[in-house]
Amino acid sequence: MTSPAFDRIALPLRTERLIVRASTSADSDAVWRYRRLDEVHQWLTTAPADAEGFRAHFADPERLALTLLVELPGVGVIGDIMLRVEDAWSQAEVRPQAEGVQAELGWAMDPAQQGRGYATEAVRAVMAACFTELGLRRVSAGCFAANEPSWRMMERLGMRREEHSRRTALHRSGEWMDGMNYGLLAEEWRSLTD
């Protein structure tokens, strides 16, 4: 099962160095290889404890319908990107115009491949597809404030910090942590790419 959004994007996306494609259940072991690492799973919303649990989680058709994989030719899967098309909040009378007009993005990358700009390159390609092929009006992303590499990347992508919330997110460690939320409107994206 693929996402209706993925059906409207000319996948795979190709960048200068990467391929971004839809995931399949057969990709679970490649993704588990880096998602199991402490420096990755500490920031993830869901982090199954073992490969079997991760396979079951990853193979869920709803999860597959949201997950794009980042491949580096000659190396294989080096990351994944969640693309969730959503409705905007609206008043009841205009609800139909707010359906499916924005997306939330999330990502995880293999630490062995970090620091080379691959995540920025891949997410930029997905954002471009959101604003062009999907015709969305807004893209957003969020993270724990302590995950500085993630919010710094959002800033490199031209996203605007919309919120720094204080101790609003409960981490699996039991600590209440700050959150960071960023957004980018289609017209802002166009001004960045002109």
UniProtKB/TrEMBL annotation:
The keyword Nuclease does not apply. This is Putative ribosomal N-acetyltransferase YdaF. Keywords: Acyltransferase, Transferase. PROSITE patterns: GNAT (PS51186). Residues 18-187 form the N-acetyltransferase domain. Transmembrane segments: none annotated. Gene3D superfamilies: 3.40.630.30. One of its GO terms (molecular function) is acyltransferase activity, transferring groups other than amino-acyl groups. It comes from the Bacteria. Its EC number is 2.3.1.-. InterPro entries: Acyl_CoA_acyltransferase, GNAT_dom, N-acetyltransferase.
